[in-house]
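Hey,
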Amino acid sequence: MIQRLLPLAALIALAACQPAGEAKVTVADALCRPTMPGRDVTACYLTLTAGVDDRLVSASTAAANETQLHEMTTEGGVMRMGELEGGLPLPRGQAVKLAPGGNHLMLLGVKAPLQAGGTVTLRLTFEKAAPMDVTAQIGQPALDEHGGHGG
């Protein structure tokens, strides 16, 4: 009897070690702003939803020398932008938006102007999920409820 239960116990133990969901991240609404004339920087936005608790740890693109994950904070009524250290948490099942006026990807040293109507490929690297390439449209983000782009 014990010999029959051992394989079952091993399967139960193995199942307990598996994550509750799949280490996969879905991406929606990937968009990069066109570069302004004479400028070699721009911002990209997208929405990430992870199957398990995960973290966006980095991003890159062949279109720029460097890609940074930036956060927007407000201190004393002054909005500041800076690199987000340690990556961006992606709680399981929650859509995390990188959007104007909030967290976003910053492309630095853009090699050739990004023009509206084109695309750019972004490589996203996560703590748990496999790295993925995402094709972002180049264009202006939708207007927010105040009639602006939000930053």
